[in-house]
Specification:
The structure is a homodimer of 184-residue chains.
Chain A (H helix, E strand, L loop, with lengths): L13 H11 L5 H27 L4 H12 L5 E2 L1 H8 L3 H13 L3 E5 L7 E5 L1 H21 L5 H21 L12
Helix pairs in contact in A: 1-2, 2-6, 3-6, 4-5
Chain A binds a DNA duplex (30 and 30 nucleotides) through helix 5.
Protein name (chains A, B): MarR family winged helix-turn-helix transcriptional regulator
InterPro entries (chains A, B): ArsR-like_HTH, HTH_MarR-typ, MarR/SlyA-like, Tscrpt_reg_HTH_AsnC-type_CS, WH-like_DNA-bd_sf, WH_DNA-bd_sf
DNA sequence: TCTGAAGACTTCAACAGTAAAGTTCGAAGC
DNA sequence: GCTTCGAACTTTACTGTTGAAGTCTTCAGA
């Protein structure tokens, strides 16, 4: 009776969760579940951490994603909304709205392509670039702290295993297209 | 010139992305970035895959999350909206709406606690339980496929490393509360 | 018993995302 | 040189989430 935290209980620990799965669904491989659950929890926490950091810069996580894509695109630092949407995994409509807001905030510019007036080109402003840089600085501090318990060799092995998993999903889901387990 | 895929380019590969980071932001440790980027890409892909599977059952990913929380809670399979919200990382308001929809669809029940009439209790229905089970079956197939390239020993090492990272973030963010890099 | 404070949930208004229809321009065929 | 098709983006209507304000109940103190 001392072990039920009452009706105000919070998220169970990872091990508690695995134990619960074994109780309710015997077919589950606990080793697999541990990897999968840890992955998704980690991601949630990282998302929260990034959100706090970008908030200090007065931008949202979503806006940072756009800035990252533009900088990573390289030299002219310009991309069309459709391309941006693909890179961020959004619908074109969402991209339109996002760009609207970011133009209003002075983070990016939007102009029509002179050679093809149906096309639009989004570019990064000085302010956008400097917010991006600040966010990167904060992010790298966070990421270094996150991995501080892993040796260099462990980091390498971890990265290698994760990319192996990633390759597996990407093959099966060519561009958010296919499906991993063919269920239809 | 043959290497720019034109204005219709899609998401760059992980390695291309890392190379771009090194070009634009030298302070970045490529090993760290590889881990972090792979984590977030993996999560996006997994989310897409789960979404497809639950869609086949006529429920959303969000609804599956609620069903999972209820089943994992154990025996009476009942939780309050506030507790559910904490476990899923949502605001109470979002939880209210989500439960509305799920009650309408017959996946869960909502009743007032007899002993404390300000409290509400959400329980899972037969149908909810069976959708949960179907979703779990599909998910385990997917997860097993995802990890198929890793040996048993590798899976263990991966799970162990990920939980070490998770512990690090959770310590720093006690309940989505604290912050990892103290930036204020 | 009454009153005030705190807790648990809901309501409301605003915002972000999606799907589908709409608009506009460019290019290919007649 | 029209016309039609298709591509790229935007608009519209709807769904789901958030933050803040509101309601209702319990509990502690006067």
């Amino acid at each position: 009776m001392a072990d039920t935290p009452g009706p105000g209980a919070s998220e169970p620990s990872l091990d508690e969760q695995i134990a619960a799965y074994q109780r309710e669904f015997q077919d589950l491989d606990p080793q697999v579940e541990k990897v999968v659950s840890a992955l998704s929890r980690l991601n949630r926490r990282m998302h929260v951490a990034y959100g706090r950091q970008t908030a200090e810069l007065g931008i949202s996580n979503a806006e940072w994603e756009v800035l990252k894509a533009l900088v990573l695109a390289g030299d002219p630092y310009r991309l069309g909304p459709g391309d941006l949407a693909k890179r961020l995994g959004l619908t074109p409509a969402a991209m339109t709205h996002r760009i609207d807001r970011m133009v209003a905030e002075g983070l990016v510019t939007r102009e029509r392509d002179e050679n093809n007036r149906v096309r639009v080109i989004v570019g990064i402003t000085e302010e956008g670039r400097s917010k991006w840089l600040e966010a990167m600085r904060m992010a790298t501090v966070f990421e270094e702290e996150l991995l501080q318990d892993l040796s260099g060799e462990e980091r390498g092995r971890l990265g290698e295993m994760l990319t192996r998993l990633l390759r597996r999903v990407e093959d099966a889901q060519p561009d958010a297209g296919g499906r991993l387990s063919d269920l239809d």
